[in-house]
TrEMBL record:
Keyword Transmembrane helix attached: yes
Domain VIT: 468-598
Species: Hymenobacter cellulosivorans
TM ranges: 43-64, 71-92, 112-133, 145-169, 181-204, 216-239, 259-275, 287-307, 313-333, 353-374
InterPro entries assigned: MSEP-CTERM (IPR027550), VIT (IPR013694)
Keyword annotations of the record: Membrane, Transmembrane, Transmembrane helix
Signal peptide (UniProt feature, chain positions): none
Database matches in PROSITE patterns: VIT
Entry protein name: MSEP-CTERM sorting domain-containing protein
Amino acid sequence: MRNLLNPKWLLLLNTLPLVLLAALCYAEFTVVHSLLPAPSVALWGWFGLVLAGLGLSTLGYALVQIQRSQPVGVAYCVLALAAHSAFIMFYLNLDTQILPRDVPRWMVPTDLLLYVGTFLMPTLAYAVFALVVRLTPTDPPPTVAINFLLAFVGPLAWYILLLVPFSALQGQSSAWLWETVFPLILVSGVVGFLFFLVRGVYIMGLRRAEDAEFHFVWKLLVSLLLPLMGLLVNNGLFWGGLSSSRSHEEGVFGNFNSPWFYILAVLNGVLLCMPDQSGRWTRLAVFLGRSVLLSYTFYFFVVFLPYLPLSILAILLIGLGFLMLTPLVLLVVHVRELSTDLDYLQRFFSRSWLRACLVAGALTLPLIITGSYLHNRWMLHQALAYRYTPDYSRRYDLDAAALANTLNIIKDHKERPFGFSMGRQVPYLSTLFNWLVLDNLTLSDDKIASLEQLFLGTEPEAAEEFRNPGFTARTTRPVLSGLTARTHYDAAQQAWVSWLDLQVNNTDSTETAGEYATTLTLPVGCFVSGYYLDMNGRREPGILSEKKAAAWVYAQIVNETQVKDPGLLAYDDQGRLNLRVYPVVRQAARTTGLQLLHKEPVVLTVDGRRITLGDSTARPLTATVLTPDKTVAYISAAAKQRLPLVRRTPYYHFLLDVSAAAGNQKAAYARRVASLRAQQGGTGPARFTLVDAYATPVRESAQWQNAVAQHESQGGFYLDGALRQLLFDTQQHPSNTYPIIVVVTDNLNKAILGPGLAELSSAYPESDQFFVLAADGSLEPHSLRQNMHVVRAAETMPAGPRLVRAWPTAARPQAYLPDNAAADIVLNRARVSVPAPGAAGSRWQTGLLLHGYQQWQAFHPEATNEQRVPFLRASFRTGIMTSFTAYLALENAAQKAALARKQEQVINANAALDLDESPADTTTNVPIDEEVWVLLAAGLLLAFWQLRRTMQIS
């Protein structure tokens, strides 16, 4: 263990953690510094200087000792213990001044006190270990008993302090006692207790040859029995009545219920308890096994390292508090055994080779875990790609069993802690998992349920409506009280530039803060190019940002107890424009507005009010407008009327539910299809697609019944994917026929459907409906655009084919357009690229190109992750909002910095991952912001007290 005195350890255990701590704290400071008062900013500066002093002094000392080939000295260890302990205590005392309460906690994802404790604790632990090695003679080693006796001077000092009548002292002028003496005694008691405890264990290893029998019993207790008991206690197997109210996958310090924790604990205990082997190859095998399991021992040491100061308090109350010290003692034993193995084996093997084996062994478990997580990431991303960004030109076949295992792990790791318990989180491993697999985001419960239904065929759970007992539904909300427009024609870009100004009021004078929300539909070719919200007497322009990040920041601000002034403008899933403003306080008016670019005059309806933008008497645009690269075309309503009318021949395309839940419906399907085709004439040859987790077209339509009979069901009824695949094929190959989509199933409610297929509307110009063929042979119409589960009772099967417009000519059509009085955007090329800087001639043409690319990407979602960042950058650069971006007006610089950080996180992650559970779940998780150790200690004491009572009763 004397290798611990090598000064190179200081670079790993002090310099690196302090650099990470400084980087994390600086990242938090850059976000919240504008909200901090001057005294807090000064404290940040002082603590930063002290932290830099601690790090640089240790770095200089380490480099000097390395240069001199000298070990770490006693003086450094004592000074490091004193300095770093003082830093933690002063930070704890000034925590709420460094980060005041009025700073929103959603801007600081992790409590800074947790950062300080986590990254300074390795230095404290190293200093204790190094002191033990330096102050313990090896020949002859001191007695063990005196060290264990001295170890309990610390708990005894704490016990005496706890017996002091606090009420008597509080009546005196003794602030110095509580602010200086009391913390000094507490820290000294902890350091002294841990020093003599570790020293006693270390001496027992030195005296192993003197009493081999006692040494074996001691190692059996520390290496095997106590770790197993600790796992059982943590996992609730001794909790009696509490076990019924806790999940078997939860634990006080984390979820250690995996069988692997027990297997590795037993294996580790057996290897450490094995007597010294005389054969070099047997001893080498034991050494390699101990090296592999060193990371297991070290992991639990790191997990319990922050709790070591509380171990004394737990020991005072119940004897099982010693379980919290087991990882510390076990690490000393483990390192001592490895050191003994090294001393023996270097007589037969080179020391450098043995050290390489030690390092390789210690990295084995971390590499296995990392590899497993990377496999989980690959499985998840494959599933997400198929569900949300599929490539319609390829076939998918995912391993459902492996995906189920991945989803179960995700559910365990994403479970939030309950109270002071870590719940189903696995300390540090959950953080690693979330980083490697989820890109530090999350996968909402809705998406997990959707993937399970898709690939595993599980039934979706009915959503339970949650209602706060003290919540009363609002009967009134802020309303639109004024609507004006400012518009002018920009000759340079040959388009209208209009500002739509809205004034909103709260009609309920008793409502302190309400949210104004409205939805409006923009005509084709009308693009959002600006937004503002008046706040605090100034006009704040909106920031064009990534849509999910903007929505998340808006939700966090709305949930604050201190009301701020956000405004959000974004497209919804149906392509409509959503505007939200918060707060609208009592009857005080709020003013907000948005800028629109449009090629022609338009008429908008906002909350029932109609307003015209542009000169309605201007001559209509009769020519097709192309982008400079001629990839996207804008066809006005007047220009569309000049296109030839054509009548395409319809044909039935049956989507047959062959999922596992459909059961044996083959004969019933045949009767329904035959009856429908007999009743409805005038259609071309029918086509069939078998739909379960995958959409399988039947090549020979006449053999569709044989295909159904031979099909092996996989997963659930993924109707959304089948519809998208069908519409993609239809749009990619324009022809003189079009499909009448008929879904054959007994229960559409079990189908996996999205919010709608409005973004694919160019693929169904004749009609935006599909039909469900019921058991009685009737056809139920449903909308392809939205609310696909809802029956559109007012519509029926069309009497005949509808006329559509062929573009550019009827002889060689590239697209078919609905015959209506609305403009359309048409793709003139098979592929549309993200516009490069300066690619479009004007800002409106840039908007046309962006929305054209957005339309192309709807049919090519496989390009989402690859082209998302360039697409977002192009939107940011031009100020044209798309379905992937949103305008957000914020009040202060801290909110803007938090938005920038969250946006960067979202952009670098998979597009299908989530920032929160769901849009409806807008609660903000606020970490414990003060007195963290006191609160944590209280939780532990309650848990141990309940454990003790339960064991006494039993």
